[in-house]
Fold this sequence. Notes:
By secondary structure, the protein is of the alpha+beta class. The chain has helices at 72-88, 94-100, 111-121; strands at 11-13, 20-23, 31-33, 41-43, 50-52. The chain folds into two domains: 11-59, no CATH class; 72-120. A three-stranded antiparallel β-sheet has the order 1-2-3, with no helix packed on it. It has a two-stranded antiparallel ribbon with strand order 4-5. It is elongated, with a radius of gyration of 19 Å. The chain binds zinc ion (2 copies). The site of one zinc ion has 8 residues, from loops.
Amino acid sequence: MAKVLDHVHTWMRSPRDNQYYLCRDPHCSTKKHRKDLNGKASICNFCGAEFVLTWTELDYAKPKCMNCSKSKEAQHFRELTAQIANVVTPRPNPDEVMEQESTQPFLDLTSDDIELLEDASGEKSV
Ligand SMILES: [Zn+2]
Ligand SMILES: [Zn+2]
């Protein structure tokens, strides 16, 4: 019987074939073609956080999460999540909420932005 998957793979490009990625877990010998990894959950090679692989990251030997990536898309993603955190963070003093309501930052998401966030959270339906 096949071993049950008990971890999210940490992908590293195969030194022998750059179309393939290998799991870095010493107990795991999973190998996949990069086209099968787009949209799949993975562990960041740099910070260990779980994230969803995209074609952008599948160009790298060691894919990394949005927080570690220097790509334009990742920077945009960080700005968006910071904006959202700003908007949804409850204010400590309820009296101040009334006064400051009009100064709430305006969150203007385009459909591209929403898609990006959905991709990253891995909840996009297929
Ligand atoms: Zn693995
Ligand atoms: Zn990371």
